[in-house]
């Protein structure tokens, strides 16, 4: 069953998503050469605790295995579900997907962003731009009267039109009391197919885009998904509420704090 949330429930999910977005911003601000992915994972754990939240992915169970980290941190050819490690030191030219899922007062907030460390090649920059734009294209289709397939098709069309590929093994999902709820939201598909979008639905839309082949395999930890051809992958994600007025993005970054105007500003100088 796909849950259609009441306004009271939506307020709770908004709060959880606000926390997730704040944690994501704080962790991304710490991404720098010389930092380990373990450092980032532990920083996220602290930020969550400071905000009264906990990780929704720590101890997440699949079969007999439990996920051992507080975030998913995936570098370069890693697609998703990378585990923070003191051995993984970030270097100039790397890209890293920072995936944050929190549980706050019983509700889930889920969001992700891929960050570049310093100069990257034009090809990798195009990968990041394409993945971000694919997310926006998917969100634009998250409207009443549309279906999940319209979101999927918009993402796939944009990505493949740029000569890249979408990962098939992982999909977006419903968000609510648990991290993965119905419906599944794939990043490939045909328009006017799958579930109809209705008011009160909350879904995570999350394109995972590979610069090369869509094929993946798993690392030695049995969690980290890696591109089979070892070319880079990017991942962006927002949690979205379906409303009569259009898609409401619940995990937008916190608004920047306004800086006080300088005392020596010229009267004719434009003020931002």
CATH topology-level fold name:
Creatine Amidinohydrolase
Number of DSSP E strands: 17
Mean pLDDT: 94
CA-CA gap between termini: 48 Å
- Structural class of the secondary structure composition? alpha+beta
> How large is the share of residues in beta strands?
25-35%
The named CATH superfamily: Creatinase/methionine aminopeptidase superfamily
Please estimate the helix content: 25-40%
- The strand order across the widest sheet is 10-9-11-16-17
Return the string of H and E elements: HHEEEEEEEHHEEEEEEEEEE
CATH class: Alpha Beta
Q: Indicate how many domains the architecture comprises.
A: 1
Cα shape: globular
| CATH second-level architecture | Alpha-Beta Complex
Number of distinct helices: 4
The gyration radius over C-alpha positions equals 19 Å
Largest sheet geometry: 5 strands, antiparallel
Poorly predicted regions: 260-272
């Amino acid at each position: 069953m796909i849950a259609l949330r009441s306004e009271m429930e939506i307020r709770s999910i908004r709060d959880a998503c606000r926390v997730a977005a704040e944690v994501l911003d704080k962790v991304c601000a710490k991404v720098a050469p010389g930092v380990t992915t373990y450092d980032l994972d532990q920083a996220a754990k602290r930020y969550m605790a400071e905000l009264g939240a906990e990780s929704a992915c720590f101890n997440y169970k699949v079969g007999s295995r439990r996920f051992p980290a507080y975030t998913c941190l995936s570098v370069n050819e890693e697609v998703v579900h990378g585990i923070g490690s003191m051995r993984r030191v970030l270097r100039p030219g790397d890209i890293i997907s920072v995936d944050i899922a929190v549980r706050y007062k019983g509700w889930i907030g889920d969001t992700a962003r891929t960050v570049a460390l310093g100069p990257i090649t034009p090809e990798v920059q195009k990968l990041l731009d394409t993945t971000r734009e694919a997310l926006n294209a998917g969100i634009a289709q998250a409207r009443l009267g549309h279906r999940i397939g319209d979101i999927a098709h918009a993402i796939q069309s944009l990505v493949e039109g740029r000569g890249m590929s979408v990962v098939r093994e992982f999909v977006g999902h419903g968000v609510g009391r648990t991290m993965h709820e119905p419906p599944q939201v794939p990043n490939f598909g045909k328009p006017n197919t799958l579930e109809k979008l209705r008011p009160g639905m909350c879904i995570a839309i999350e394109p995972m885009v590979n610069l090369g082949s869509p094929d993946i395999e798993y690392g030695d930890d049995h969690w980290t998904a890696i591109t089979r051809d070892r070319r880079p992958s990017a991942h962006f994600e927002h949690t979205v509420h379906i409303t009569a007025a259009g898609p409401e993005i619940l995990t937008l970054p916190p608004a920047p704090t306004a800086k006080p105007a300088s005392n020596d500003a010229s009267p004719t100088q434009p003020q931002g």
